[in-house]
Amino acid sequence: MLAVTERVVVRKYSMMRPRSEVWSDCGGKCNYRCSKADRHGMCIRACNSCCNKCNCVPPGTSGNKDMCPCYASLTTHGGKPKCP
């Protein structure tokens, strides 16, 4: 199943598509999301973790978290935003 909004494409898990395909969508989106990050490796790790949980990465290199409410709501153990 594919849901399309004006700015972002969100893939949702379905029984017809293996979960690994959903996860593989995260790589390219997170690479772009983290392309301007000072700590690229840390950004990629956090972004992929968030994407795997939410199946969504906000568009652009920062901001736009309102496009992915799940992504925006994840926090670290210390209560800080987890997702870049």
Description:
By secondary structure, the protein is mainly alpha-helical. It has one domain (2-73). Helix content is 42%, strand content 7%. It is built from three helices and two strands. The protein has helices spanning 19-33, 40-54, 69-73; strands at 2-4, 9-11. The protein has a two-stranded antiparallel ribbon. Strand 1 (2-4) and strand 2 (9-11) form a beta hairpin. Helix 1 (19-33) packs antiparallel against helix 2. The longest helix has 15 residues, at 19-33. The radius of gyration is 12 Å and the shape is globular. The N and C termini lie far apart (26 Å). Mean pLDDT is 81; it is low at 4-23. InterPro entries: GASA. Pfam families: GASA (PF02704). Belongs to the GASA family.
**Estimated helix fraction:** 40-55%
Separation of termini? 26 Å
* Radius of gyration based on Cα positions: 12 Å
How would the global form be characterised?
globular
Strand order of the largest sheet: 1-2
How many structural domains does the protein architecture include? 1
| Poorly predicted segments | 4-23
Helix count, per DSSP? 3
Write down the secondary-structure element order: EEHHH
Number of strands: 2
Which features characterize this protein?
single chain; 84 residues; mainly alpha; two-stranded antiparallel sheet; GASA
Briefly characterize the structure.
With about 80 residues, the protein is mainly alpha-helical. The chain contains three helices and two strands. It has a two-stranded antiparallel ribbon with strand order 1-2.
Describe the SSE topology.
Elements: E1 2-4, E2 9-11, H1 19-33, H2 40-54, H3 69-73
Helix pairs in contact: 1-2
